[in-house]
Amino acid sequence: MIDTNVHLFRWPFRRLVGDDPAELVSRLRKKGVTQAWAGSFEALLCRDVSGVNTRLAVACRQNGPDFLIPFGCVNPKSPDWEEDLRRCHEEHRMPGIRVYPNYHGYSLEEPAFARLLSLAASRNMIVQIARSIEDQRTQFPLMIVPPVNPGPLARLLPQLPQLKIVLLNGGGWAGEDAPGMQELRSAGNVYFDIAMNEGVGGLDRLVASTSQSRVFFGSNYPFFYFESALLKVKGSDLTAEQKAAVMDGNARRLMGSSRS
Amino acid sequence: MTVNRRTLVKGMVAGLFAAGAPLGIEAEPTSTSDESHFRIWDAHSHLEALHGNTEERMRFLVQHMDKLGIERLLLSQGFGEFIYQATPEQVRTENDRVMEAVRLFPDRAYGSLYLNPENVEFCLQEFDRCIRDGPMVMIGEVQTDVRCNSPALDPIVERAISLNIPILQHTWFLNDGYRPGDSTPSDLVELAKRHPQAQFICGHTGGNWELGIRAIRDTKNICAEIAGSDPTSGFTEMAVRELGAERIVYGSDVGGRSFASQIAKVLGAEIPDSAKELILGGNMRRLLQPVLKAKGLAS
Predict the structure, then answer these.
(1) Any idea what the CATH number is for the domain that residue A25 is in?
(2) Which member of A180, B41, B97, B214 lies 3.0 to 4.6 Å from A151 by CB, making a disulfide possible if both were Cys?
(3) Interface pTM (ipTM) of the complex?
């Protein structure tokens, strides 16, 4: 089982079980995970993302080589961000990056974001876009972070057919039908995790409206209870073959293509 | 209809992990398959965000209940868009629909009364029609244009005390402003302190559960209900720590939410199985025991 949506280190507003990397790895292994794509909670608020990415890479190497796959952060609104992308790829050997447009204060219409996608595509890197981490209604009142509007992404995709995009936390209790989501679901190079997929039969609908090859298992662990994503698969109407694809095969194939 | 949940869920787990792919699942069941060990009653459900008529929606829910071993729903209002300032006719329609669902699936759902305290006299009439003389077994989810600390609720609560039935009140601590009638856990505490003999269920525990749990902590006739928020880690553990497992109730808030994300708050929590048993159904059966016994219904 490959979990494409976990974070290392501390969530800024609450202590979580598993916010120590060694403990996180131990817990994930016990749950049956064989590989986890890991970002860093530090990336949300720290301006020195290069330092964040180095700590992430080291922690992954020390605590779970071949288990924790680091996805560093690049903020295209920060000076010298192209160097951060280069370091992620060339120094840390990361297969992809994870971006947080809402925490970093830019929309997907920003020209710098389009340039980031283009450079990532040229490096054959996966780009994970965290549409949100937490429901806006439960966020700390002095730091409200609305979810990312995915609409502009649909307009960028035709220019970047080789780009591999993963939309993390793309659902939400009221977010499945946000403007632009339908266009993204029909785009062949956009992938979705299931951490915030909601509603009775929600995973069945997500697979039906995208493709069984473009839906990944992702838990948003340790911020969410891991079992939420697992029970979504268990409680779905997907066939055994489809479940295997969601839980393992699809992510394995995308990761393989980014490293080929 | 009888569901052998243990056999059913074990079969599903086997199917899930027998896909032929190297999923890395060990032979021993993980804690996530523990739902097969519990009798799960869902204290908070609706027919909204689903498709078809009442029967079709209920059948769809039951299919998904069976997948995760859920034995019974407490079903209340909600079919389409949320109704503001509901008229008596709208309230009656909502309650009639719930009673139809219960009539169609008597082994899988009990009904819960919807009311609008803007018209107290009609509320009492509906109480008598649907609970005293009908099949419903509790009040709620109460989510109206009247804040729950209003004196308008007092005669309704007194009527609930007379039949020893619980009241599920919608609550949220919102961080972006309140509409008229929005209720918080603190509002519910005011109501509960005026009626120490009544039993209240704090729907959503205020959403911002770290605040909601503390708001109700010292008011012993309020239980926390965990439905309808994201499955954020630590919710259930903190509730057990502050309230004790006997004051926590599982609910999902389907159909807008999934059973999976909400049950995970209990099954994924680091609490004893004895606490999970209480939260997933034991507490709800205890709260409903008097009315179920009086009506000759199964618990």
Answers:
(1) 3.20.20.140
(2) A180
(3) 0.96
